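SEQUENCE-TO-STRUCTURE ENTRY
===========================

Backbone structure tokens: a row of integers, each naming the local backbone shape at its residue.

Task: work out the structure tokens from the sequence, keeping to the layout shown below.
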Amino acid sequence: MSEIDRRSALMLVVATMGTALVAADPSVAQPYRPDEGKEFAPGVRLVEVSEREAMHGRDSVLPAYKRIQVVDIDFRPKITLKDDAMRNDVVCQCIDGEMRLDHRDDHPFTVKKNDVWTCVKGEPEDTENIGRNAAIMRVINLIPA
């Protein structure tokens, strides 16, 4: 085995740390196991990510909302989910995959990784995973005061 000089050792450490940082980046989608979270419908699982009621000892800074909740919805390939009414105002982001959405307003649209959109309470939404792999929708629920 040959000796490693300091420069080579330093480069190996830097490369290893860079890989670890990329792997730990929370903005990078973490694929879920097919059994992770709660089954919401066949082929669709809901994974709770975060929830907060108060902000640093004070009420929410958005007066219309008392709490926010973040969940990921994992859609297996070729799965469609029909939702007749959003329970809250929400902000959504496609964090992995490709989906077709229809709010039943004659304006269906396709979202890909990193696309963001909103829905209002009571609005319907039909979601279809149109990719070959799982698609993950991050949902930020704005829960009224």
Summary: The helical segments are 6-23. The CA atoms of residues 96 and 113 lie 5 Å apart. The first strand starts at residue 38 and ends at 41.
